[in-house]
Amino acid sequence: MRRTISGTLRLLLRASTAGLIFSGLTLSHIANAQTAQDDFDSCKAGLQQRAVEGGVSEPIAQQVFSKIKYQPRVIELDRSQPEFVQTFPGYFSKRVNDWRINKGRELAAKHKELLADLTKKYGIPAHYLLAFWGLETNFGGYKGKMPVLDSLATLACDPRRSTFFSKELITAVKLLEAQSLDQERMVGSWAGAMGHTQFMPSAYAAYAVDGDNDGQINLWDSEADALTSAANFLAQLGWQPGFRWGREVMLPESFDYRLLGYSNRKSVTEWNDMGVTKAKGDALGESDIASYLVMPAGHEGPTFLAYPNFRVIMRWNNSEFYAIAVGRLADRIAGDGKMIASLPDLPAYSRNHIIALQQSLNARGIDVGGADGILGPATREGIRQFQLSQDMVADGFPSLSVMEAMSSFMSISLMMNRHPHHTWANN
C-alpha cells in the first residue's frame, strides 16, 4: 500500500510540475501575443494617420482601420520557405494541364466578342489573356480568401518589407473609397493580391479598367473588368503586338551551352545560322527580333527561344517557369499541340542540398555568392564552370550527375534513390 500511495504521490507531483511548466509556457505565449497585438495596434494607428494625410477622408479611414485585424498566419506564410526547390517538370505539369486548356478554350468561345475587342484595342491576343487568367485564379475559381486589408496591414507592420506593404495598404484604402468597394468582400491572397487577375493595389490603381462600362472597376466580380485590365496592364508593360512569347526549339549537337541565357541575346537570324531550329526541325527563318535561349530542366529537357514578350510576361511575375507556363498554356488554348521534347524525371532538391552545392562551389574557387539555396543566375553559372572542368554538358543545371560529381566536396549526404518518385533524404 505504501508503494502505491508513494507512486501515486509521485505521479501527482509530476503532473503538478508539468502543469506549472505548461502554465508558464502558456503565460509566456499569451504575453508575447499581447505584445505583438499592442505593437500592431500602435502601428495601425500610425498607418491610419498616413492614410488621412494621403487623402483618405477621416470618417472612411476610421471606419476601415477599426475593422483591420492582425493576422499571424500571414507572417507565417511570409516567413515560410519551400522545403524543396521546385523543378520545372513539376511546376509545368501542374499548371499546363488538360483542364486549363479545355476551360480556356471554353471561355474563349464565351467571351469571343470581348476578347476580339481587347485584341483590337490593346494588341494582346485572346489566348494570352486567358492563359494569365487561368494561371492566376483558375479562371476565377479561386481568388483567395484572406482579408486584403488585414494582410497588407499585418505585413506593413512587420519590419521585413514594411515600406512596400505600407504603400500598398494606403493605396488599397484609397481604392476602397474611390471605387466604393466593400471591405468585407476585398479578399485575396495572403500578400494582398486581388481579383480574377490577382492585381496588387498599386497595379489595380494604375492599370485596372472599367471593362463592362458600369461606372465601377471591380476585379472580383466582373470578368470584363478583369480581362480588360489585364490587357491594359500588358500593353502598358510593353507587349509587342504581332509577336509570340517565344517557341520551343531544338539545338544542334555541337551547341555551346555557354550561349544560354538573357545575357547572350541574338537575332533569330543569328540563331538560325548557328543551327538552332524549330522543335520539329524546321528552320527558324530570318528576323531581327532579339531573342535568347532558356533551358529550364537541363539539356535532357525542352529548350525555348524567348522573344521580347517573354520579358513582358516576367514583369507580371518575375519567373522564367511562370513565363514559359503562360506562353505554352496560351499556345495550347490557341490549338497548338504538346511540346516535342519530353519532361525529364528530376529529383526534388531540398534547399539544404542547394546550399551545400553553393558552399561547395565557393570552396572550389567558383564564386557563386552567398549560399541561399536559390538557383539564381550566379549559381547556374557556377554549375556551368564546374561542368566544364569535368567535361560534362555545360547547361548550368544541377542534374543528378552534377550532384553526384560534387558529392565528395559537399557537406551533406547526397544519397538518393534513382527512382523518379523518390527524393533526397533531408539531412
In short:
The chain is an alpha+beta fold and 427 residues long. It has 17 helices and nine strands. Strand 7 and strand 8 (303-306) form a beta hairpin.
Tags for this entry?
about 425 residues; alpha+beta; 5-stranded antiparallel beta sheet; two-stranded antiparallel sheet; 9 strands; globular; disordered N terminus; disordered C terminus
Topology:
Blueprint: H1 2-53, H2 58-67, H3 72-79, E1 84-85, H4 88-95, H5 98-110, H6 112-122, H7 126-137, E2 146-147, H8 148-156, H9 162-178, E3 187-188, H10 201-207, H11 223-237, E4 246-250, E5 266-267, H12 268-273, E6 277-278, E7 290-294, E8 303-306, H13 308-316, H14 320-333, E9 349-350, H15 351-363, H16 377-389, H17 400-406
Antiparallel strand pairs: 1-9, 2-3, 4-6, 4-8, 5-7, 7-8
Helix pairs in contact: 1-2, 1-9, 4-14, 5-7, 5-14, 6-11, 7-14, 8-9, 9-10, 10-11, 13-14
Largest sheet: 5 strands, antiparallel
N/C terminus separation: 51 Å
| Average residue pLDDT | 88
**Could you tell me the radius of gyration in angstroms?**
27 Å
